[in-house]
Amino acid sequence: MRHLIKFNKENDIWDDTFRNIFHSPFFNLTDKVFDSTSYIPRVRISDDKDNFYINLEIPGVSKDDVKISLENNVLNVSANKKQSKKTEESNLIMNEIYYGEFSRSFTLSDDIKKDSIEAEFKDGVLNITLPKVEEVKPVVKEINIK
Question: What is the CATH number of domain 40-85+92-131?
Answer without folding.
Answer: 2.60.40.790
